[in-house]
Design brief:
With 225 residues, the protein is mainly α. The chain has one domain. The chain contains 11 helices and no strands. Helix 3 packs across helix 8 and helix 5 runs antiparallel to helix 6. The longest helix has 32 residues. The two termini are 36 Å apart. 38% of the residues are buried.
């Protein structure tokens, strides 16, 4: 059985990981800041569904096979990198289209093209729980570093003779609980600042920052860093 000391140490490790700004934080903040609370919670649930999958697979020893197989790891890494670069590039492209539509040469359009581009940049796939869940779980599962982290950390906290699946799910549950609490803070912060963040200029800057973070994460993943 896992001791309270082990759970406490694991909580500290994943707590620091959760608080470190990264891809998950950028996705949740950007979605919530646009007023898409259902989709933001969908992203949260999707990310944590992925965390539960990684924890379960690690307990079963599946992710150890992934990290041991260089080809499988490289395929997953490149798939994840391509997805992230596509997602980040899509956001950046929408903001660039909006910027070009507001140039003097595009003034004759009456701003309708700019408004449409802004809507595309801010709306994404709409304020749906399922859409956010899909985005969150795909982002999480295509990140092989999550699997590598669990393979490196999780077995150290599973005592000899204990049920690997039960212990793994328990520890993943601790990670999920901390992440959901932190997500509540992020969504509440975005809700407080929503009036400022939903201004057209702020929305464009937010999308540019988020798109850059996501694309940069994908490039780092592709480079194996």
């Amino acid at each position: 059985m896992i001791t309270l000391d082990s759970i406490g140490t694991f909580t500290l490790i994943v707590g620091l990981l959760t608080l470190t700004p990264g891809l998950d934080t950028a996705l949740i903040l950007r979605t919530a800041a646009l007023g898409h609370r259902r989709r933001a919670w969908g992203v949260v649930f999707g990310i944590q569904s992925g965390t539960l999958v990684w924890g379960t697979l690690t307990s079963l020893g599946v992710t150890a096979l992934l990290t041991a197989s260089h080809i499988a790891y490289v395929i997953l890494r490149w798939a994840g990198a391509a997805y992230l670069v596509w997602m980040g590039g899509r956001l950046l492209w929408a903001t660039w289209r909006h910027a070009s539509s507001e140039s003097p040469e595009a003034a004759g359009t009456g701003g309708t093209t700019g408004a449409r581009a802004e809507t595309e940049a801010g709306r994404g796939a709409g304020d749906t729980l399922l859409g956010g869940w899909r985005q969150g779980i795909v982002t999480n599962l295509l990140n092989p570093k999550m699997g590598a982290f669990y393979v490196a950390v999780l077995p150290q906290f599973i005592p000899t003779g204990a049920s690997h699946i039960a212990s793994g799910v328990l520890l993943a549950g601790v990670h999920i609980l901390l992440a959901v609490v932190w997500s509540c803070v992020l969504i509440a912060l975005a809700h407080v600042l929503r009036d400022r963040l939903q201004r057209p200029s702020a929305r464009l800057y937010l999308d540019r920052i988020t798109g850059t973070v996501i694309a940069a994460f994908g490039i780092r993943l592709a480079l194996g860093q």
